[in-house]
Specification:
Strands 3, 4, 5, 8, 9, 16, 17 and 18 form an eight-stranded mixed β-sheet that branches. The C terminus is likely disordered. It contains eleven helices and 18 strands. Helix 4 packs across helix 5 and helix 4 packs across helix 10. Helix content is 24%, strand content 25%. It binds zinc ion (ZN) (2 copies). One zinc ion binds next to loops.
């Protein structure tokens, strides 16, 4: 029978002892197995995972390892369950938890910092100085589910209460999985200074973070918002999410187009979400003098950057990791107020047992897939929707 010291449960949400979980073996190899349902400790709850979205970072972790770090090293053959963009229902409370109630719908952000290092104290818990130190006798209490601790490609997971975001019951499971993606875009704009109303913003790369970056920038009052990319179907979604202009970089030079669209001087902010090899050099030419560039994606290989242009023009570069400073809560506020419809980027839903097929759709962009969601409960074991 499921129990732990001072853990509160409810007969309304019976919890099994064992659960289904996808486990990472060798690179690229996921196996469906069984694990004990984890037990929440102090400041933690048990979440029944109702839906989880697949992120490009999951594919990186499954195929190559980083940025996951399990027991200080690569995540392969360590009984590790990846997946980090999930939502669900609180079904058990650890000792002393009264911030959430059993039955409450929540979505999660990823990083629970150690809470005791300099960066955590500054709200920069995604840059925790004790990152990944959460095992054996180096346990600093840090968790980044799906990166340094077990994640969401399973039926239940423990989460620190600091990583929970309450959601209205009216928000669909699929939409709730996208809050953290919007939160990442929000964090990027926060780090650029946050005063975006009336400022010009370019988003490069219409992946999930880029598309929701457009939506968040527009909701914050940025004008104009310009989106650049290579796929017309994604640029079209960008327009629906609030882009004033879109530029297909296959048809015209992105830097020239951006400068032309904003009166020749360049824009105030660029949020770089493409990871293209020349993206930084393009971004520093899209911004005006004194402009700011947020780097939210990166290429596999190191690339040459025109430092002289950056220095001569007083350009600021920010590397951002994840979704710090409670940006996820601000993103959720926009979404629950229906300031934009994040579900425009969700293209497919599969059952949890069909995770390999779902990953195939996400990785190979089958059927123009953008965001692919996997649902644990109440979903038949086949593809259930696509549009
Ligand atoms: Zn992600
Ligand atoms: Zn920390």
């Amino acid at each position: 029978m499921y129990a732990g010291p001072e853990v509160k449960t409810s007969p309304d949400f019976p919890i099994p002892d064992q659960m289904k979980a996808w486990i990472l073996g060798n690179p690229g190899e996921l196996k469906l197995g069984e694990k004990p349902v984890p037990v929440p400790k102090r400041a933690e709850v048990l979440v029944r995972i109702d839906a989880v979205a697949i992120c490009a970072t999951d594919l990186e972790i499954i195929d190559r390892g980083p940025p996951a770090s399990i027991q200080g090293g690569l995540p392969f053959n360590k009984n590790f369950t990846p997946g980090h963009e999930y939502m669900g229902t609180v079904v058990a409370l650890g000792p002393g938890v009264d911030e959430y109630r059993i039955g409450q719908h929540i979505t999660v952000e990823i990083h629970a910092g150690c809470g005791q290092c300099k960066r955590c104290r500054e709200g920069m818990y995604t840059a925790c100085l004790n990152y990944g130190l959460n095992y054996g006798d180096v346990d600093k209490g840090h968790r980044a589910n799906g990166f340094t601790t077990d994640g969401g490609f399973c039926e239940y997971q423990v989460n620190n209460i600091n990583t929970l975001v309450a959601i209205p019951d009216a928000m669909s499971d699929e939409e709730a999985t996208l809050v953290v993606t919007a939160g990442t875009a929000m964090y990027g704009l926060t780090e650029l200074g946050g005063l975006v109303a009336g400022e010009s913003v370019v988003v490069t790369g219409p992946g999930p973070i880029g598309l929701l970056g457009v939506a968040v920038a527009k909701a914050m009052g940025a004008a104009p918002v310009i989106l650049t990319g290579t796929r017309d179907n994604r640029l079209k979604i960008g327009r629906e999410l609030g882009a004033d202009h879109v530029v297909n970089v296959r048809n015209e030079d992105a830097v020239e187009a951006v400068r032309r669209l904003n009166g020749g001087k360049g824009v105030d902010f660029v949020v770089e979400c493409s990871g293209a090899p020349n993206a930084v050099n393009d971004a520093i030419r899209m911004v005006n003098r004194g402009g700011k560039v947020c780097l939210a994606a990166f290429p596999q290989a190191a690339t040459a950057v025109d430092v002289a242009h950056i220095v001569r023009n007083n350009i600021y570069l920010y590397g951002i990791r994840g979704e710090g400073k409670s940006a996820t809560h601000r993103a959720e506020a926009f979404m629950s107020q229906k300031r934009f419809d994040a579900t425009k980027i969700r293209t497919h839903t599969f059952a949890l047992v069909d995770l390999p097929t779902a990953i195939h759709y996400a990785r190979d962009r089958v059927d123009d897939a953008i965001k692919v969601v996997v649902k644990a409960k109440g979903v038949a074991a086949h593809r259930v929707s696509a549009e």
